[in-house]
Design a protein that fits this description.
Layout lengths: L7 E4 L4 E4 L5 E6 L4 E7 L8 E6 L3 E5 L11 E4 L8 E8 L8 E7 L8 E5 L11 E4 L11 E10 L11 E9 L5 E8 L11 E4 L4 E9 L8 E10 L2 E12 L5 E8 L9 E8 L8 E7 L11 E6 L11 E6 L2 E7 L8 E9 L9 E8 L11 E6 L2 E7 L8 E6 L4 E7 L24
Antiparallel strand pairs: 1-30, 2-3, 3-30, 4-5, 5-6, 6-7, 8-9, 9-10, 10-11, 12-13, 13-14, 14-15, 16-17, 17-18, 18-19, 20-21, 21-22, 22-23, 24-25, 25-26, 26-27, 28-29, 29-30
Length: 448
């Protein structure tokens, strides 16, 4: 029997209606500004998953979950006390002061003329709101003159426990351009956390040469039970990207790192764009952490027929990776995450992208799609299950938003300033539509 796999269904989350690119009517959750990052956590201490969205203007929008797939109207907590040319970029959630309430760390630009970005810690109140932020400035690598830095922007932030004291710490990476160089470089700041939820002075890690990184993740890549960092790095000049590499920084369990192995990608594997997103999981179930990465073609001649592959690098357990393999060729990638979406204990990948369209049936200037690549447990993936989306999807996140025990997906849209939820429908009946096929017991369809 031929079936259309129906993994996720669009979930009603507010009173505003929208039209999907597949023609399905849906209801969406409005945001107070253009979203730049999204995370999931139990922000109001009711043991239910909530969705936290960061907007470009520095508003923290919290959609409180009911546990049945529905969300209350947004609660807002501003990062900045006054409006202006300030901007926010990335966020992560953790309990920094150990009061059993979810706190927030955001990477922001408090002063648009400053040569560094800042880390903003906002302690949670346990009711869906956050306290006013405590700011900590990042630091540049030794030898760089802050007066010569023209642009600085936070790129990624994570909150692992680096020194094994039971408190989450903060790792923030940011990009900058030194006057006259035309080269985009990056640095990493490692902030250890105090007991009261404030940050200690940062330890700076400079990336080699002129490489820059827009993404990083945490994992134990050498099997010593200490948190390591993995970065996807690009050499980018005014003429565009020149080369790409994956670098591992090996942790010492005290908050310090040493340079580890590097995996330089062949130009044929990544002919267009820059690294955009990275996810860590054991995709081949051999006990070692693997890495999936995706490229963004924005700003480099982006168009639907100009694609770059998503890549998988299998970890060898000593900080090194095997040669990368491609599992998808897409365009305009915005975010990539890992999770077990079909319940077979093999990690899957959800990838969201968008691209410019001049005129098509959606009558929109941007269009995108959410693709789920189901893992086979051996480091390979099935053909993607795809939902087409009108607008400009920017970030995707997974969480349990209802009571069925399956992870759902949520994505933010930077064109309509909306949040959309897809609930996992992996146990739904099969339907005989078209030529798409899927494994028995796995399905994918819209729900109205």
């Amino acid at each position: 029997m031929k079936v259309t796999p129906a993994l996720f269904i669009m979930l009603v989350v507010s009173s505003a209606s929208a039209q999907s690119a597949d023609g399905a009517s849906s209801r969406t959750y409005p945001l107070a500004g253009q979203p730049v990052d999204v995370a999931v956590g139990n922000v109001d201490s009711d043991l239910r998953s909530d969705i936290v969205t960061l907007t470009e203007t520095g508003s923290v929008e919290v959609a409180l979950g009911s546990g049945q797939g529905r969300f209350q109207p947004s609660l807002s907590s501003p990062i900045f006390a006054a409006t202006g040319a300030r901007s926010a970029h990335v966020l992560a959630l953790a309990d920094f002061n150990q009061d059993r309430r979810v706190d927030l760390i955001a990477g922001v630009n408090v002063d648009p003329t400053a040569s560094v970005c800042s880390a903003a810690v906002m302690l949670g109140r346990g009711d869906g709101h956050f306290q006013a932020p405590n700011f900590a400035s990042t630091a540049l690598p030794a030898g760089l003159d802050p007066a010569r830095i023209e642009i600085a922007q936070c790129e990624a932030v994570v909150a692992p426990d680096l020194n094994r004291d039971g408190r989450p710490d903060v790792v923030l990476t940011y990009s900058f351009i030194e006057a006259g160089s035309g080269v985009l470089r990056s640095a990493i700041n490692v902030f250890l956390m105090r007991v009261d939820g404030t940050l200690r002075a940062p330890h700076v890690i400079a990336l080699d040469g002129d490489y820059g990184s827009r993404t990083l993740a945490v994992g134990d890549f050498d099997g010593d039970r200490r948190s390591d960092l993995v970065l996807a790095e690009d050499l980018v000049t005014a003429a565009g990207p020149k080369s790409h590499q994956i670098e591992v920084l090996l942790g010492n369990g005290r908050g310090g790192f040493r340079k580890g192995p590097k995996s330089i990608l062949a130009p044929a594997l990544a002919p267009v764009g820059r690294f955009k997103s990275l996810a860590v999981a054991d995709f081949d179930r051999d006990g070692h952490r693997d890495v999936a990465v995706a490229f963004d073609t924005d700003g480099f001649g982006e168009r639907p027929d100009r694609t770059s592959p998503a890549l998988l690098l299998r970890g060898l357990g000593n900080g090194n990776f095997a040669a990368p393999s491609s599992f998808g060729s897409t365009f305009g990638n915005k975010d990539l995450i890992a999770g077990d979406f079909d319940g077979d204990c093999a990690p899957d990948v959800a990838l969201i992208n968008s691209y410019d369209v001049e005129s098509d049936i959606f009558h929109d200037t941007r269009s995108g799609r959410l693709s789920v690549y189901t893992g086979r447990g051996n480091g390979t993936f099935d053909e993607p299950l795809t939902l087409w989306i009108a607008g400009d999807p920017s970030s995707v996140v997974a969480g349990q938003f209802d009571s069925d025990g399956s992870p759902e997906l949520a994505y933010t849209d930077a064109t309509y300033d909306e949040l959309t939820i897809f609930t996992n429908n992996r146990c739904a009946p099969m339907y005989s539509i078209g030529d798409a096929t899927c494994r028995p017991g796995f399905s994918f369809s819209w729900c109205f």
